[in-house]
TrEMBL record:
SUPFAM superfamilies: Protein kinase-like (PK-like)
GO molecular function: ATP binding; protein serine/threonine kinase activity
Signal peptide: 1-23
Region (Disordered): 251-274, 643-665
Organism: Rhamnella rubrinervis
Protein name: Uncharacterized protein
Sequence intervals crossing the membrane: 282-306
Gene Ontology annotations for the cellular component aspect, listed alphabetically: plasma membrane
Entry binding sites for ATP: 368
GO biological process terms on file: response to abscisic acid
Compartments where located: Membrane
């Protein structure tokens, strides 16, 4: 790598660290550009299109080239050693799509996915077989460790150091290792390391050990952290964040140093001793390895049998430790919210009130005090807490913890300062603060948050109650999806479910769900389409027009689309600029609210539609619940019901016993 390119790498790397909030950790190099439909562009597209299937077929790692110099493209893809083939395929596929959009016409780029599930690189230079340490990224957990930091750092150093040896010693097809070490009698620290299989064993060890030094600097004394390099990565946390396997080991907290050798043993042996030694060596060479092998096989079988019988116990221990780290004391939360006083009340939802609070360390929190009507079991409640706490994305409101004491159940979230989106887009005054650039930013952020829930999180989650009041805005007006009370979790092999619990908000429900209880990811797509149309028009889904008739927003937009007067839909406060962009977003909104489920796009496709002007949009068809106008008298109960629902943030449903609505782990 040339010195100028290296400087560019470091500069861009600094920018990346300042913007840790992007959906994926990626860097676009300045090693050169290519033009659209050029030979380099075609070679790159050929490689990227084949990477997902080839990486999956080759055990999680694949590198290849396409074309000849000067248009030759080198690419490699690596999946984390503990994920499934299906997760690997989806990760590489989505990462490739995002990179082509975020690094247009760049000849070199690198990206780690959001949850460090896969790595993708391509370049116009040979990147195979050589260890590279720049650019690098650090992702520390903001929370400090509660135990002694020096002891913790020493334990972490020993743990990752042992893993460096383990990962560099395994077979060439997967340089990957996981282990844990005890911090206290009740708490462990878990770690994972991995190298790209194309580098040597020694290079792998050097890469991880160097990353270890950096992760101790950036993340030492923290509850978790990741340090990412092009050739390796290190990740640690206080809970088992990876899929454990029979090969996982427990590393002692301290590593004893070998005792000094006996000086007498260093003197040269006599000839007689040498002959005896030769015979002894022959016996040793034959017998000892055989004995060791037999012992190892026996131990391995014993461990396997033990793990099979005790897996549930280990999982319970891990869950209990994780729950312990998430638990808040009721008196602490009561003090933080000033005894849940009305002055600190942020809103009232269908499952309880939300209060602003401040912890003793000054950290602002939002506390949802669940209503006492819940009949949900304690074990189920805690299982759902564990699931939701694992969902971490810049466009999701983070669950920080919970409290369950006597009849009280509380959820503790990060505090998001600017309130909910509906307070802006439906307010005639505040709406003027949302110019087109800001609305587009919010739309894209919501899209990435939903895509994470649908495809990139460890568990597939369908929100089921996506609406403007469930989108919070932080100080920089970044959107964060909140209230997973309607969420329903699916395993990856499930695509649709019939349910008798139709939960959600009138006006945002897809017809197949409202009428028949059919649940799929396209349910959230429909709600997202309604949300886009609301953001572009500044009107609620069902509202009264100047003639006091009720307007169903998707139907009204479709009518104007067919008449060629779509500008009538656009919020006047946006002005006349950005007409093509606003028109494209309305087009996308109409595609999302189509009656036929199969005709609605996925959220991955919506990302491409929003960010790629070269992506040709299909023509929309008639939206669901199509109508032009209905009389005010007939429709007023519907409008008032929806307004009441929005104002109180309540959701309809036949079963409200669970705040998380039967999320299964």
């Amino acid at each position: 790598m040339g010195s100028s390119s290296f400087v560019v790498f470091l500069v861009l790397h600094s920018l990346i660290r300042l913007r840790q909030t992007i959906a994926q950790t990626q860097l676009c190099s300045n090693r050169g550009t290519f033009s659209t439909n050029s030979a380099y562009h075609n070679n790159l597209n050929l490689l990227l299109s084949s990477l997902p299937s080839n990486t999956t077929a080759n055990g999680g790692f694949y590198n290849a080239t396409a074309g000849d110099d000067p248009d030759k493209v080198y690419s490699l893809a690596l999946c984390r050693g503990d994920i499934t083939a299906e997760e690997c395929y989806k990760c590489i596929n989505s990462t490739a799509q995002v990179m082509t959009e975020q690094c247009p016409n760049k000849k070199e780029a690198i990206s780690w996915s959001e949850r460090t599930m896969c790595l993708l690189r391509y370049s116009n230079r040979d990147i195979f077989g050589s260890m590279e340490v720049e650019p690098s990224w650090s992702v520390p957990n903001p929370n400090n460790i509660s135990t002694d930091s020096d002891k913790f750092n020493q334990t972490l150093y020993n743990l990752v150091g042992s893993l460096a040896t383990q990962a560099s010693s395994v077979s060439e097809d997967q340089k990957f290792a996981t282990a844990f070490s005890g911090l206290t009698s009740l708490r462990n620290v878990y770690a994972m390391v991995q190298c790209t299989p194309d580098i040597s064993q020694n290079a792998c060890k050097v890469c991880i050990e160097g990353a270890l030094d950096e992760i101790v600097k950036c993340c030492g004394g923290k509850e978790g952290g990741r340090f990412l390099r092009p050739s390796c990565f290190v990740w640690f946390d206080l809970f088992r964040f990876y899929e454990s396997s029979g090969s996982e080991v427990s590393i002692p907290p301290t590593v004893s140093k070998p005792s000094p050798s006996n000086p007498d043993s260093l003197s040269p042996p006599s000839r007689t001793t040498a002959k005896k030694s030769n015979k002894s060596q022959i016996v040793t060479i034959v017998v000892v390895p055989t004995a060791v092998l037999v012992i190892l096989v026996a131990v391995a079988c014993a461990i396997l049998l033990y793990r099979r019988s005790k897996t549930g116990i280990h999982d319970d221990d891990d869950a209990n430790k994780r729950l312990e780290s998430l638990q808040f004391d009721f008196h602490t939360l009561r003090a933080a919210t000033e005894n849940f006083c009305d002055a600190n009340k942020l809103g009232q939802g269908g499952f309880g009130a939300v209060y602003k609070g401040s912890l003793p360390n000054g950290k602002k929190i939002a506390v949802k005090r669940l209503s006492g009507q819940s009949m949900q079991g304690e074990e189920q409640f805690k299982n759902e807490i564990l699931l939701v706490a694992k969902l971490q994305h810049r466009n999701l409101v983070s669950l920080l913890g919970y409290c369950s004491e006597a009849e009280e159940r509380l959820l503790v979230y990060e505090f998001v300062g600017n309130g909910s989106l509906d307070h802006f887009i439906f307010d005639p005054t505040k709406r003027t603060q949302l110019n087109w650039e800001l609305r587009y930013k919010i739309i894209c952020g919501i899209t990435r948050g939903i895509l994470y829930l649908h495809e990139d999180s460890r568990f597939r989650v369908i929100h089921r109650d996506l609406k403007a009041s469930n989108i919070l805005l932080d100080e920089e007006m970044n959107p964060k999806i909140s209230d997973f009370g309607m969420a329903r979790q699916f395993f990856v092999d499930q695509s649709r479910l019939n349910t008798g619990r139709q939960m959600g908000t009138l006006g945002y429900m897809a017809p197949e769900y409202a009428l028949h209880g059919h649940v799929s990811v396209k349910l959230d797509v429909f709600s997202f389409g309604v949300l886009i149309l609301e953001m572009l028009s500044g009107k609620r889904n069902s509202s009264l027009d100047s003639s006091e008739d009720v307007v169903h927003l998707p139907s009204y937009t479709w009518k104007k689309w067919r008449e060629g007067t779509i500008s009538d839909v656009i919020d006047p406060t946006l002005g006349g600029g950005f007409r093509s962009e606003t028109m494209r977003c309305i087009h996308i909104g109409l595609l999302c609210v189509q009656q036929n489920v199969e005709h609605r796009p996925t959220m991955a496709q919506v990302i491409l539609m929003l960010t790629s002007r070269s992506f040709t949009l299909p023509l929309p068809s008639q939206p669901a619940f199509f109508m032009y106008h209905i009389s005010t008298e007939a429709a007023l109960p519907l409008v008032e019901s929806e307004r009441a629902t929005t104002e109180s943030e309540q959701s309809v449903g036949t079963d409200r016993t669970s705040y998380f609505s039967q999320i299964t782990v």
